[in-house]
Write a structure and sequence with these properties.
single chain, seven-stranded mixed β-sheet, 8 helices, 11 strands
């Protein structure tokens, strides 16, 4: 087994709340400079920037998982991670079908462009990506699972835009692979109120919207490698595979 540092929640310039500095080249270079072996690209309600960063990551020796941060009808944020590009494209079609046709106002909310490695604009999403789609968390999770994706409630310790913040709990029937949090203190307080959360695999991520936030709160993987299947096994904590917050005691990392 090897140990790797990973950050599974990173936004790009496509997210309206993301910095325009979050281009593919900047994200990949910053992640490598800060010792990460893997990242996940998780823009709001869109996967369109994923392929370019995956291509660049492959060339540069950084594992890049395609993902998305979906805003459910309940206005809770959940991550979906894709094993294949076919699954990503199918889920993108699903998002396009269910995102409300609310025009984006770049001056108020920010630009929604995706770019290539040279920071040349490839396209712009016209509808506001931070809107809630017209699908419930149960519907989103079920669709993700039909595609073989991983489903993760995001930043569960936050009072807003988390499943617990919006609904008060995580339904035990929801097909959750792991739960993510960003703030250690808030999460520890949350566990005092919701002890059942310890039944889930828990890990940290940065939720980076600016380059300086990348790798600020990574997770540590213990796996044989960096494939989607091995990430799934780390979430399941089987055969010695694991994923845990980086501030927990660990051995020296090796790539």
């Amino acid at each position: 087994m090897k140990q790797y540092l990973a950050d599974l929640h990173i936004h790009t310039c496509l997210s309206p709340c993301g910095s325009l500095d979050m281009s593919p080249a900047v994200i990949v270079r910053t992640a490598l400079d800060r010792g990460l072996s893997a990242i996940a690209v998780t823009d709001h309600n869109s996967t369109l920037q994923c392929p370019e960063i995956q291509f660049l990551g492959e060339e540069s020796g950084l594992k890049v998982f395609a993902g998305v941060e979906v805003t459910t009808r309940e206005e809770a944020h959940c991550l979906v991670l894709f094993e294949t590009d076919a699954a990503r494209q199918t889920f993108q079609d699903y998002l396009d079908a269910h995102l409300p046709a609310i025009p984006n106002d770049p001056e108020r909310f920010g630009d929604q462009v995706w770019v290539n490695r040279k920071e040349e604009i490839l396209g712009e999403v016209p509808h506001l990506l931070i809107s809630a789609i017209d699908q419930s968390v149960d519907q989103i999770a079920a669709f993700a699972k039909r595609l073989g994706c991983l489903f993760v409630p995001a930043h569960v310790e936050r009072p807003m835009f988390s499943l617990i913040g919006q609904l008060g709990f995580i339904d035990p029937s929801l097909p959750v692979d792991a739960i993510e949090y960003n703030d250690k203190g808030r999460h520890e307080a949350l566990l005092q109120q919701h002890a059942y959360l310890t039944n889930y695999t828990q890990y940290t991520a940065s939720d980076a919207h600016h380059p300086e936030q990348i790798a600020t709160n990574p997770s540590v993987w213990t796996t044989e490698g960096l494939s989607f299947k091995q990430l799934q096994m780390a979430f399941e904590q089987v055969d010695g595979y694991s994923i845990r917050p980086s501030f927990q005691k660990t051995d020296d990392l090796s790539s």
